[in-house]
Amino acid sequence: MSIVKGPQAFPRAEFLRRLTAVKAEMDRLEVDTLIVGNSSDITYLTGYTAKSGYVPQAVVLSLVDEEPTFILRRQDAPAALHQTFMDRGKIIGYSEALIGNPDKDGFDAVIDFVNEPGAANRGVGVQLGALSARSAEKFRSRLPKARIVDCTHSVAWIRMIKSDLEISTMREAAAIADAGVLKACEVIRPGVREADVVAEVAAQLARGANGKAGTDFAPMYFCSSPRTGTSHIQWSEDVIREGSQINLEIAGVRHGYVSAIMRTFSVGRPSDRLRRLHDAEVSGLEAALGAVRPGATCSDVANAFYRTLEKSGFQKDSRCGYAIGIDWSEPTASLKDGDITELRPNMTFHLMVGNWIEEDFGYVISETFRVTESGCEVLTKSPRKLFEL
Question: What is the value of pTM for the model shown?
Answer without folding.
Answer: 0.96
